[in-house]
Amino acid sequence: xxxxxxxxxxxxxxxxxxxxxxxxxxxxxxxxxxxxxxxxxxxxxxxxxxxxxxxxxxxxxxxxxxxxxxxxxxxxxxxxxxxxxxxxxxxxxxxxxxxxxxxxxxxxxxxxxxxxxxxxxxxxxxxxxxxxxxx
Length: 135
Prior knowledge:
Blueprint: H1 3-33, H2 58-66, H3 73-77, H4 82-89, H5 93-100, E1 111-112, H6 113-123, E2 133-134
Parallel strand pairs: 1-2
């Protein structure tokens, strides 16, 4: 960059810093007065999967209450989490989790047919329940 371009960039950075400082000062003043900075009455919507939690480990119970994917319910009822299944299969947790994602979502990957068949035999997850099966 030329010296002229460097000076222009520095001026832009100073202006942005001043804008952010002014904004922060405005927020501080509003907070002191109580103007419009009320906590939102709308709470986060969490729809946990309804899982029979009798005899489940604390770790599985926590996972079940955070999950919203119906397909994972069968795993949780067998006291298996996505992370535990990933360890069992020798796959990454993110890869296994992506098998459970909805078919239209960007995070969905097809589950390999051989693994889907193993899970059907071991955990009772029918092949037809998977959003996508590869092979």
